[in-house]
């Protein structure tokens, strides 16, 4: 499972914090508003009930009172319902015999004892408030107030507060995303600088003044880059110096071995075989030293000039006894490229030599817009080896399988180094129909 990134975690924390805060504020606001509205509604209901109870009390004081007429004279509207309990009977404006069911037993006992009271109840599926007022002669007046409209108002308020909480949470997530984006911007610069160094640009540095809080990190990064650059430069100089110092004694050995090799016919078979072996190993050693010296120089900037690359590719093929028509030029490939002639020629030659040694020979040398390709008909390169094969002193499985000892394991590393000097890279893929396809890219090349 892919781990959640820092930006996502911070944004989620902002959103959760905003949601909790807004939920608490909304809950407190809702409860406060609810209590206030219910309190005001109950006080208004009590005042109205006392007023109506006074009217009813005056109407039933006389002899043979008409309770139904008294109740109908009250201005109660559609959201209020009145009851009178008199002489063991319930009276209402509709003379509903089952009306006493709406009055809780506890409230009836309280009013029967001469104390007024109020209680919240459920009536017709909605909230209601019933207020009871004792009257003269043991009568009790009850008035029921519907709270349905108040409930709908509170439901609307709850929906509004919920929507506000959700919007506040979304706004918190947006703020968290914005804050982390700007807070992590210096780290993005560090990542870009690290990628630049990994890509071969050892001049990449961070500016400590850009973000004062990250000045120690910038200083440490720059110091690391300086030390890495110095170490690589020391290694490059060491390889160059060693290779250069070995050239003179190797040339002497090569000359001496050449003299002995010419006279091997005068020697016995064992001595002649030893001379041939020494000559071959000296030649291989000479090639290794030359490749090491070339690798040491590959870190230098490319010396660009106008080069007829299609003609250069044909010349490289002819120098290796290959037909010039092996070169295929794509329709979008220009003739003149602004590149380093020596590096491109050597890189292409190394790819062709690699195909001759381990790939059964090249079948196509392709010149495209900003790239060169060499196709062979060998066993190809396994996907797991397609990156490491360009490392130094790495020999592919084909070389080991063929038992070849003429290669140095540096040819493809030199190709990668020359590609990097031009700002490109070297890669290998499977050729359609079998074999390997090696590509040498020159991105951003200039043409005339």
Strand order of the largest sheet: 2-1-5-4-3
**Binned strand content:** 15-25%
- Here the CATH topology of the largest domain equals Beta-Lactamase
Structural class designation: alpha+beta
Name the overall outline: rod-shaped
The mean pLDDT is 81
Largest sheet: 5 strands, antiparallel
Q: How would you characterize this protein structure?
A:
The chain is rod-shaped, with a radius of gyration of 48 Å. The chain has helices spanning 6-59, 67-72, 105-112, 148-183, 185-198, 215-262, 269-297, 309-319, 341-358, 397-402, 411-421, and strands at 80-86, 89-92, 117-123, 126-134, 140-146, 305-308, 327-329, 336-339, 362-368, 371-376, 426-430, 436-441, 446-447. The chain has three domains: 6-155, PAS domain (Beta-Lactamase), CATH 3.30.450; 213-295, Signal transduction histidine kinase, dimerisation/phosphotransfer (DHp) domain (Helix Hairpins, Orthogonal Bundle), CATH 1.10.287.130; 301-441, Histidine kinase-like ATPase, C-terminal domain (Heat Shock Protein 90), CATH 3.30.565. The longest helix is centred in the first third of the chain and has 54 residues, at 6-59. The protein has eleven helices and 13 strands. With 448 residues, the protein is an alpha+beta fold. The strands form three sheets. It has a five-stranded antiparallel beta sheet with strand order 2-1-5-4-3. A five-stranded mixed beta sheet has the order 7-9-10-12-11. A three-stranded antiparallel beta sheet has the order 6-8-13. A hairpin with a 5-residue loop joins β4 and β5 (140-146).
């Amino acid at each position: 499972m892919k781990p959640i990134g820092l930006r996502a975690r911070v944004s989620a924390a902002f959103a959760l914090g905003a949601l909790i805060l807004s939920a608490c504020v909304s809950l407190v606001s809702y409860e406060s508003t609810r209590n206030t509205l219910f309190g005001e509604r109950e006080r208004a209901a009590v005042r109205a009930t006392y007023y109506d109870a006074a009217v009813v009390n005056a109407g039933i004081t006389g002899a043979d009172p008409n309770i139904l007429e008294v109740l109908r004279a009250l201005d109660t509207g559609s959201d209020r319902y009145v009851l009178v309990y008199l002489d063991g009977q319930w009276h209402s404006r509709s003379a509903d015999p089952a009306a006493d069911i709406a009055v809780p037993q506890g409230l009836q006992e309280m009013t029967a004892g001469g104390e007024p009271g109020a209680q919240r109840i459920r009536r017709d599926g909605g909230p209601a408030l019933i207020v009871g007022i004792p009257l003269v002669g043991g009568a009790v007046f009850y008035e029921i107030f519907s709270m349905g409209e108040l409930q709908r108002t509170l439901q609307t308020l709850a929906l509004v507060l919920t929507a506000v909480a959700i919007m506040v949470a979304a706004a918190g997530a947006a703020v968290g995303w914005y804050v982390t984006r700007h807070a992590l911007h210096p780290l993005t610069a560090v990542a870009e600088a690290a990628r630049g160094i990994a890509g071969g640009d050892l001049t990449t540095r961070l500016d400590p003044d850009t973000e004062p809080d990250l000045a120690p990190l910038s200083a440490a990064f720059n110091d690391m880059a300086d030390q890495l650059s110095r170490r690589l430069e020391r290694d490059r100089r060491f390889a160059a110096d060693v290779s250069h110092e070995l050239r003179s004694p190797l040339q002497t050995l090569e000359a001496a071995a050449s003299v002995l090799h010419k006279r091997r016919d005068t020697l016995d078979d064992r001595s002649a075989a030893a001379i041939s072996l020494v000559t071959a190993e000296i030649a291989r050693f000479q090639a290794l030293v030359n490749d090491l010296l070339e690798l040491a120089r590959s870190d230098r900037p490319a010396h660009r000039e106008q080069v007829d690359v299609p003609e250069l590719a044909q010349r490289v093929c002819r120098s290796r006894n290959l037909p010039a028509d092996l070169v295929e030029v794509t329709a979008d490939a220009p003739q003149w490229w602004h590149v380093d002639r020596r590096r491109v020629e050597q890189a292409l030659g190394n790819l062709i030599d690699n195909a001759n040694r381990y790939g059964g020979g090249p079948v196509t040398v392709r010149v495209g817009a900003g790239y060169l390709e060499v196709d062979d008909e060998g066993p190809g390169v396994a996907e797991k080896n397609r990156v490491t094969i360009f490392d130094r002193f790495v020999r592919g499985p084909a070389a080991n399988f063929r038992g070849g000892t003429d290669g140095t394991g540096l040819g493809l590393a030199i190709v990668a180094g020359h590609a990097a000097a031009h700002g490109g890279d070297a890669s290998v893929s499977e050729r359609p129909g079998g074999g390997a396809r090696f590509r040498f890219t020159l991105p951003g090349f200039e043409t005339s």
